[in-house]
DNA sequence: CGGCTGACTCTGG
DNA sequence: TCCAGAGCCAGCC
């Protein structure tokens, strides 16, 4: 089936974000801004809020979504960020000692400024 | 219907 | 490199 990311009428804005995030290949990471751009007509914040409202048991690799700085935001009492880091390492994504990811290498669209 | 919160991003110091 | 403030929209109480 053809995936029409931004041309797919979703019941909710969040579902549309999930569709894009779900297209992120393993071992790669995308920024909120990138996802927002793919979704179209939305800001990076909307993506973050959508993921924050992520339903339980969803197949959305939210862990592959990070901020523009290539870093993990301190979400969920700080426990979620730790979990995300572990998941990324398990995916093969190398994290810097400071917790930074090289978007020019692991970035899905390699949006290195 | 009104108000608050939130996994962001940018610019300046 | 780190800190602070402002702009933004959607969802929930």
Structural features, described:
Helix 1 packs across helix 2 and helix 1 packs across helix 3. The protein is mainly alpha-helical and 113 residues long. It has a two-stranded parallel sheet. Helix content is 39%, strand content 4%. The N terminus is likely disordered. The chain binds a DNA duplex (13 and 13 nucleotides) through helix 2, helix 3, strand 2 and helix 4.
Secondary structure layout:
Elements (H helix, E strand, L loop, with lengths): L12 H10 L7 E2 H8 L4 H9 L12 E2 L12 H13 L11 H4 L7
Parallel strand pairs: 1-2
The protein binds a DNA duplex (13 and 13 nucleotides) through helix 2, helix 3, strand 2 and helix 4.
Number of strands: 2
Structural class: mainly alpha
Largest sheet: spatial strand order: 1-2
Distance N terminus to C terminus? 34 Å
Tell me the overall shape: globular
Rg estimate, integer Å: 13 Å
Strand coverage percent: under 5%
Q: Which residues form runs of ≥5 with pLDDT under 50?
A: 2-8
Largest sheet: 2 strands, parallel
Tally of individual helices: 5
């Amino acid at each position: 089936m053809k995936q029409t990311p931004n041309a797919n009428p979703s019941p909710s804005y969040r579902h549309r974000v999930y569709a894009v995030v779900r297209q992120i290949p393993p071992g790669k990471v995308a920024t909120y801004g990138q996802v927002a751009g793919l979704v179209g007509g939305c800001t990076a914040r909307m993506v973050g809020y959508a993921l924050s409202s992520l339903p339980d048991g969803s197949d959305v690799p939210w862990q592959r979504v990070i901020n523009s700085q290539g870093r993990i935001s301190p979400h969920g009492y700080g426990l979620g960020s730790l979990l995300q880091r572990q998941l990324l390492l398990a995916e093969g994504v190398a994290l810097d000692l400071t917790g930074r990811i090289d978007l020019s290498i692991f970035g899905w669209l390699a949006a290195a400024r």
